[in-house]
Protein: Outer membrane beta-barrel porin/alpha-amylase
Organism: Archangium lansingense
Amino acid sequence: MPSSGCARTLLCSLLLLGSNALAEGPTGDTPEVPRPTPPLTGMPTRRLNLDHFIGGGVNPTVAEYKVRISQTQRLGQSEDLLWRDTFLGLGGQVRLNPCYTAVGPMVNWQPIAVFNLKALVDAYGFFGTAGMLQSFRSPLDEFSDAVQRANSEAQNTYGTTGWHAMLQPTLQAQVGPIAIQNVVTLDYFNIRLRGGDTLWYDAGQDTLIPGRGLVLTEEVNLVYLAGPLTLGATFRYLLPFYDEENFRPGEDVKAANNSNMRLGALVAYTFHDGGYSSFNHPTAFLTATWHMSHRYRTGQETSQAIPFVGLGFAFQQDFVF
């Protein structure tokens, strides 16, 4: 049975599906961290919410600060578990990392406790720093860490601009201390690439992304909520969509497989539950996920035994009015 917004709205997200790259690589969208959020039962009718996140990881290397700002309106007063934690949030998101910045408007809608929908559009500005941006002509091109290091040393990176849109429906439920969340993310990127290049490497997605095209991500998180401690397992599958214009003439469009899959564990600890206050739910997290499939990280370049490891910290601010 679902409970108050899944009693803590389950996991804030996964963190590092796509943060942003440090010295050895670019990146894409930010995933988030499993961390408890305040029960929505008894939430104020209106509030201004700031959700801060800072984190980083290795294999691939990523780092990012993100803040989401929204005015949240409670939609109803029902005490039924399915309907009492419904809300609409309107606001925006700012992301900053060593490679680029992104900013744009966001909508967060929860019409029923078991379903949440986020949508956003943001503008990207790439600095041409920290090994990013690197672009490629074909999905069949090599984009290993060694290739990217060589491109960085040869200063074969550049700054550019673009925009991105995201639609993210989430199904979530909780029975006692066990919570499950299924997150589907559809991203559309429109990035200005140089020359005849049609793809770019994003460390958050850890693959080649179409300069103009779609990426689909499926995440499943299963967690045990033990007071301030959250323990669980996480799974992610990512699939970029290519079309004929992404390939060189004569290349086999069916030969490219740049999808990837990760499976692993997560742990988060919330130090303080301040309710709806100006500083609440400071949470530290750690996640370790192993590459089940990847073009380079299952033994081809990096041992499959080496996981992606992410560390981070998040907190919220709420201003009731």
About this structure: The longest strand covers residues 161-175. The CA atoms of residues 217 and 238 lie 4 Å apart.
